[in-house]
Amino acid sequence: MNDLQLVPCPQQIKLTGGMLDLPERRFIVIDHTDASALTFTAQLLKNGLVRYGELDWGISASPAVPADRTGVTLNIEERLQTNPQAYKLSVTAEGIIITSSSSFGIFYGVLTLLQLLEQHGRNLPLLLIEDYPDFTHRGVLLDISRDKVPSMETLTYLIDLFASWKINQLQLYTEHTFAYQSHETVWKDASPLTGEEILQLDAYCRERFIELVPNQNCFGHMNRWLKHEKYLSLAEAPKGFKHLGQIPMGAECLDPSDPGSLKLIEGLLDELLPHFSSSQINVNLDEAFELGEGKSREKVAELGKGRVFLDYLLKIHQAVVRQGKTMMFWGDMLTAYPDLIAQLPKDIIALEWGYEADHPFSSRCRVLTENGVPFYVCPGTSSWCSISGRIDNALENIRNAAEAGLENGAIGLLNTDWGDHGHWQTLPISMPGFIYGAAVSWSLSANKNLDLASAISRLAFGDDKSKIGKLIMELGRVHQKTGAEAINGTVLFNLLQTSLKESLEILGSDDTGLKISDIRAFMYADQEQPGDNSPGEAEIPREVILHAYKGDLHKLTRSDLDELLIELERIEAAVEQIDISNGSDNLVKQELYCTIAFLKHACLRWEWVLNHRQGEVDNQQTEELIKDIDKLIASHSQVWSRRNRIGGLRESVGRLEKLRDEYLNPPISKG
Predict the structure, then answer these.
(1) Predicted confidence band at 513 (pLDDT cuts at 50, 70, 90)?
(2) What is the H or E stretch that residue 125 is in?
(3) Using CA atoms, how far apart are residues 476 and 479, in angstroms rounded to an integer?
(4) Is the overall model pTM greater than 0.85, yes or no?
(5) Integer CA distances (angstroms), 511 to 132, 500, 559, 641, in order
(6) For residues 85 and 108, is the Cβ–Cβ distance under 8 A?
(7) pLDDT the model gives residue 670
(8) Which stretches within 448-584 are classed as H helix?
(9) How far apart are the first and last CA of the chain?
(10) Which of left, alpha, beta for 469 (phi over 0: left; psi -120 to 50: alpha)?
(11) What is the DSSP letter of 554?
(12) DSSP 310-377
């Protein structure tokens, strides 16, 4: 069906036979009473005709343009009772007509025509395309808080890409990276987005039919605020807490019973929201791990964690409604309480998220549907905590979300790209997930078997030889050569996040006998837990916790790493052969070289750990590791600065510097 290599592939394509040779000196005619609604779209098409067909056509809104001078007609017929994003694209011997009931549909029809022009130039196949999206809302969420804040150039570049793939919503996840006037202490070292920049981005998005939805975490993940004395009194657990009864964490969550918490959030919304034209806001409210572990302990014991959370959610909801907005929130905190889901306001949007291939989207969506709660399904690119991606997990996760969403009436699909623990992945690693998510959210049936390597190459990098897409896909699978699994990441990433002492502890512990999938199911069980508190926290043995978070590190062998290094050398040599027509190959090569350097260092580090265990470490090996990580830090810093602001780099590099310090001064004696 997709011999034309259109992405997203339309719902229906009919080739009618023959070709249309586009002539010189024609017009793009806007057939609508409000020509301004289509001016940007018409200009986009005009530019495409110049670029792909060397045709300089004019733009006109006049009915006086004769038929023999009309090359493309953009026709809005408001009387059509169709999805406003639907369109019909007809290429006949007489010319091209794009018809829709709205300017949205015309824009999407033009995007499809531009792909035809890119592939066929001025000699187009005669055809009829009738197309519409599966999901009304098709979004991407970019994490700009851990730790990368993209430059404006990078953001507009991504917006153009997303728009060309028919994405119509963008969220920039913020914890501390908006420059609030009264809170400079929080963001002063983060290179935040300013109000002026948000206004510019909002206008840029609107032209491209993308809704820029404000996003501000309002409950958990507030450690960037609560680490400062000015805000610490608002913390649920000012002295920190132990996640899952084992993992020490600082103050992360606001105290839901403190009026000051609500006052802070209301102030943030008052300042943030006027910069956005969107009628929605994502307030997050996810992963409030320490709820009930501090100041709200007694209230949680009395009412239950779910009830305390819901009461806080309702207060935030009232604040959002007063702003005239619709509230979005992540649904994880209410997953275990289906009776409370029924009490959610009906003007709220739940975001059902999960990032593993086997996430139970279907059962969780069904609960939301049964309770009349509008919702999005929210998979992810699987780029974070991986360095080079988890491509097979990403594809299955996104496909699973789309299938469950369609089955249960989801109103949107929001594809997420996070940056946990240093945001070490480079932008090319996220591209497979971005493109596949865009494609299946437009039409699952037409795009589930998309030739992704080819699509990545052409659509993201202008590589018509498909080399770069193939290499990125290969990098997204190299972690599988280790034979070891991890939750929400890869063991190769975890090797660089785990201290020598902890690594040796894992190697010295008995195998739990549990598969990663078993531990994941145990940790994220869809059921109310004993005492209505966190899931059996004191009962989870430390070795199980380590196994869950660090993965099957004990399964790694020297031969596995040797084979992986050989594979990385092969891919690195292939990267050198990349030649991208849009001139971005130097940057993309640097990013892929940096990706490979991270993976190589992970292998070298594990060799060092294994040698430490056997008392075989020598000074030369340690010196080589120090030299290698110094090169890695330099490469990471250089690549970072090409697409991102400097804020956050210090923290990201700091994680690598910890490893360097450990090489210089191992915390344990040899053997």
Answers:
(1) low
(2) strand 123-131
(3) 7
(4) yes
(5) 51, 19, 20, 42
(6) yes
(7) 45
(8) 452-455, 461, 467-475, 491-495, 500-508, 516-523, 542-550, 558-575
(9) 62
(10) alpha
(11) G
(12) HHHHHHHHHHHHHTT-EEEEESGGGTT-HHHHTTS-TTEEEEEE--STT--HHHHHHHHHHTT--EEE
Among candidates 195, 179, 196, which has minimal Cα distance to 187?
A: 179
Phi, psi angle pair for 443, to nearest 5°: -150, 105
**Residues whose CB falls within 8 Å of the CB of residue 456, separated by 6 or more in sequence, listed in order:** 431, 432, 435, 468, 469, 472, 473
How many Å apart are CA 405 and CA 114, to the nearest integer? 29
Q: How many CA atoms lie within 13 A of 267 on its CB side?
A: 10
- 473 SS3 class: helix
Give 326's strand partners.
Answer: 280
The 10s digit of each residue's pLDDT in 325-351 is: 999 999 999 998 999 999 999 999 999
Q: 3-state DSSP call for residue 499?
A: coil
Domains of the chain by start residue, with CATH: 12-131 (3.30.379.10), 480-664 (1.20.120)
Query: How far is residue 459's CA from residue 442's CA, in Å, rounded to a whole number?
Result: 16
Question: Could you tell me where the beta strands, DSSP code E, fall in 368-455?
Answer: 375-378, 412-417
Cα(66)–Cα(575) distance, integer angstroms: 52
Label residue 585 by pLDDT band (50, 70, 90).
confident
What span, in angstroms and rounded, lies between the C-alpha atoms of 36 and 48? 19
- Taking a C-beta distance cutoff of 8 angstroms, is the pair 502, 567 a contact? no
Give the three-class secondary structure for 74.
strand
Closest residue by Cα to residue 446 from 6, 9, 5: 9
The token pair at 26 is 């024609």
The residue with tokens 């190697």 is 507
Which secondary-structure segment (H or E) carries 109?
A: helix 103-120
Candidate from 188-192, 230-234, 574-578, 665-669 with smallest mean pLDDT: 665-669
Rg from Cα positions in the chain:
26
Nearest to 593 by CA among 559, 545, 642: 642
**Whether the Cβ atoms of residue 123 and residue 21 lie closer than 8 Å to each other:** yes
Using CA atoms, how far apart are residues 377 and 187, in angstroms rounded to an integer? 31
Non-local (6+) Cβ contacts of 637 within 8 A are 649, 653
Closest by alpha carbon to 500, among 550, 561, 441, 536? 550
Q: Which of 349, 339, 77 is nearest to 213 (CA)?
A: 349
Q: Beta strands of 144-245 (E only): which ranges?
A: 169-173, 211-213, 241-243
Phi, psi of 476 (to 5 degrees): -70, -5
Beta strand 123-131 with 87-92 is: antiparallel
Q: How far apart are CA 231 and CA 208, in angstroms?
A: 39
Name the β-bridge partners of 242: 248
> Above 60 in pLDDT, residue 523?
no
